[in-house]
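Hello forum,

I keep getting stuck at the same step: I have a sequence, I want structure tokens, and every attempt I make locally crashes halfway through. Rather than fight my setup again tonight, could one of you with a working pipeline run this one for me? It's a single chain of 396 residues.
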Amino acid sequence: MKQIRKQVRKPTAALLAAAALVAGLAGCNPTAWKHADAMRAGPPDPLGEDRLSLRWKFITADRLTEVEPQEFAAATVSADTVFIGSASGWFFALRASTGAVRWRKRLVAVSSAPIVVAGVLYIGGADGTLLAVESQTGVEKWRYQSRGPIEQSPVATGDLIVFSNEADQVVAVDASTGKFKWQYKAETPEEYTLRGHAGVMIDNDLIYTGFSNGTLAALRKDTGSVAWSTSLKAEADRFMDVDATPLVIGDHVFASSSSGGVYSLDKATGLIRWRVPFWDAGQPSSTGNVGGIATDGKTLYVSVADLGTYAIDLAGNVVWRVGAKDGGEPAQPVVWNELLLYSLTHDGMFIADRRTGEILEYFDPGEGTSSPPTITADGRLFVMSNRGILYAFDLD
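Reply #2:
Ran it on my machine without issues. Output:
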């Protein structure tokens, strides 16, 4: 099971093929799948679909000489501007239609998507910095320094910006000034934990998020005090991280842990309604790092390292599952119309029918993709490769 640990942070062992970048630059023409394992993330034959049309590509960083680089930054689109950071520390505002540079600045290494609120960009940094910059110019307004990498997008609510970090903190700051408002800190296990951290989900007066000790908590928005906290670690005593950002649908909050699987809980009390564990008879020791949870309002879509992508209805029944053995660490899946898109660190980005899980097309830029795609309402798709190249497509 290919996972990256928070406290270890070692790349997996493999040799870099320099020609892979050249192949990725050629675009997204479907090619014969290079694996034949039935549990893999794709079929062994050419797919014959043509869902992606390449518009442009933009190199955010030169990572040609690196062994197994990873880029977790995702794009945010506002009007005709794409905002994207990178592990290099450079941040770009690009014209969405052409990829032309509107502005660029060296700000901070980025592992998530920024948000845009009232003309201000809020950017989470891999060094724990939360930055506020003018979206039109990149001029810095303020910065707040937290104690751990920010790997999920911050969230705006009223006059607050709320974010989580890998130090198991949830922090709220004033949106206009960056002034500290409140902080909640969970107990971090002494054992190794998985790479990544859940973001925050705000629903009315409560903030839902998960922690590396296997708990899901509901915090009061105004104070950060705990409304309830529930353990999702099942019987595990390590690697029980709640790394996927929770979802709220109706009266339920849905979350997952790497050791316990997917849970449905009462959003007011934290009472567990049902649980679907991640398990496969052919891989009894695998639990899987959870890349994220997406929904179309009727079904949950969960990507799990090695064990694949699951479709689970809101009653806790598995509708379908597509394997991902050796595909690498998954990113947050994305639902768009009748499609489900998900990325795997080693094998690239996949486009599937969300009703059946059938893979319709895939895009392998040569070194895979670790970041989730960003899709606009009119079908423009932006995804970053592990080589630091941002690709812009039209999605059919």
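Residues 116 and 353 are 30 Å apart (CA to CA). If your local run keeps crashing, start a new thread with the error log.
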